[in-house]
Amino acid sequence: MTNCLFFGGIKVFRNKYVRTVVMSRVLLQLGVWVRNFAILLYVTEITNNDPFYVSLISVVEFAPIFLFAIVGGTFADRWRPKKTMILSDALSALSVLIVLLVVMGGSWKALLLATFVSAVLSQFSQPSAMKLFKQHVPEAQLQSVMAMFQSLTAFFMVIGPVLGAFIYQHYGIEVSLIIMAGMFAGSALILSLLPKDNVRTAGHSRTGIYADVKAGLSYVRTSKVLKNLGAAFAFAGLAAGLIQPLGIFVIIENLGKDRSFLQWVMMANGAAMLLGGALIMGIGRKVKPQVLLAAGLLASTAGTIGVGWSHDTALTLTLQTLSGFFYPCIHIGINTLILQNTETSYMGRVGGIMGPMFMGFMVIGMTLAGYLKEAFSLFGVFAGSGVLFLIATLVLLPLLRNRNKQAVQPSPLS
Question: Quick count: other Cβ atoms within 10 Å of Cβ 314?
Fold first, then answer.
């Protein structure tokens, strides 16, 4: 199985579009992880671990997904993907350089703007990459391409925190911002190596943006499977949002460690993601996607409550490792269910709707996290998050009872 995956990966990587976008994403991941950890460590240091500002970092990172995902997905079908991706990365680099000048002038809050702008622009770039794959990658290889990108994400979950913390601790926030801008600019240069966009395959919708978005919303409302997934997304998103900004307080308050220890916890989580993803690639076809998704959510339930309760470093690392191991179950289950139950012509808009369904409630949770921690306790917030993960699992029960994959029916909106 390992040899098949290895040689399959080489075959997919021979595709110029895949190879170029993957190299671009490597630089983007480096830039994003330097951004995430440098800004997190700098803000916690300058605000003396203020939970409001720590939570606000995550809000400005994820709010654009809720606000701009469906717009970006819709425009991805209208604009030329290569030009869109290059312009997005170039503007991200420029925005970081502007923020650098402001920070050097003494206004650290401008760091939040750098995170917000790059997150907004990624909502236009990411669906454009998916459009390129749809156009230029054989259908039989699309799953391998998605698996490659998942592995890339997991890899940077391992090395990203260490690299980001190292650069900040040794060189400071200014150098971190310069490296971030360089990574975004480098990604834009690599994407310029892509062949020219085919004008005939660029989207030229005759309807307005509002009409396209409305049609996508109506499509989701008429699908029982997508509605159930949407409800599960909402509960899981709220659960994830409540704990996402509080990881650093688990390190400081529960474990009594320095804030920089967070990188090792995230390393353990990311390494487990790599292992879990490799295992699922071997058995994935034997397990229904809704079962994978439910297993991932149940593992998140137990892991979240356990991490909030634990004051032992070894136990916390073990729970984070188990949560990371089951995370690919959620990722693969979600994407497979959407692919199985969505027409090709609605894929972009369904993704643009379902993603914000999760992220919108995640942002709400992140906004409330700091206040709830102060009002209750760290464990109280983690326990509440675990209950929400359990509710998300219960919402999936109708899908678990459905033994046969439902065929995608032609949309009445078409």
Answer: 8
**From 46-60, 211-225, 329-343, the region with the lowest mean pLDDT:** 329-343
Which residues, 6+ apart, have CB-to-CB distance to 224 below 8 Å?
398
Burial of 225 (0-12, 13-18, 19+ CB in 10 A): buried
Distance CA 258, CA 237 (A): 28
Cα distance between residue 322 and residue 112, in whole Å: 32
Give the model's confidence band at 412: pLDDT under 50 very low, under 70 low, under 90 confident, else very high.
very low
Location of each CATH 1.20.1250.20 domain in the chain: 1-196, 212-405
Q: Which residues contact 376 (CB under 8 A, 6 or more apart)?
A: none
Q: How far apart are the first and last CA of the chain?
A: 41
Question: In Å, how far from its chain's centre is CA 165?
Answer: 20
1-196: CATH, from 3.40.640.10, 1.10.10.10, 3.40.190.10, 1.20.1250.20: 1.20.1250.20
Give the CA angle between residues 27, 57, 244 to the nearest 5°.
90
Domain 212-405 has CATH 2.60.120.1440: no
DSSP-assigned letters across all residues of 247-260:
HHHIIIIIS---GG
User: pLDDT of 313-331, one tens digit each?
Assistant: 889 888 888 888 887 777 7
Reported confidence tier of residue 89, pLDDT bands at 50, 70, 90 = very high
- Average pLDDT, whole number, for the chain? 80
- Please report which helix (H) or strand (E) contains residue 398, including its range: helix 397-401
How many Å apart are CA 123 and CA 31, to the nearest integer? 16
CA angle, 348 then 354 then 355, to 5°: 85
Within 192-261, where are the H helices?
Answer: 209-221, 224-243, 247-249
pLDDT tens digit string along 281-296?
Answer: 666 556 777 887 888 8
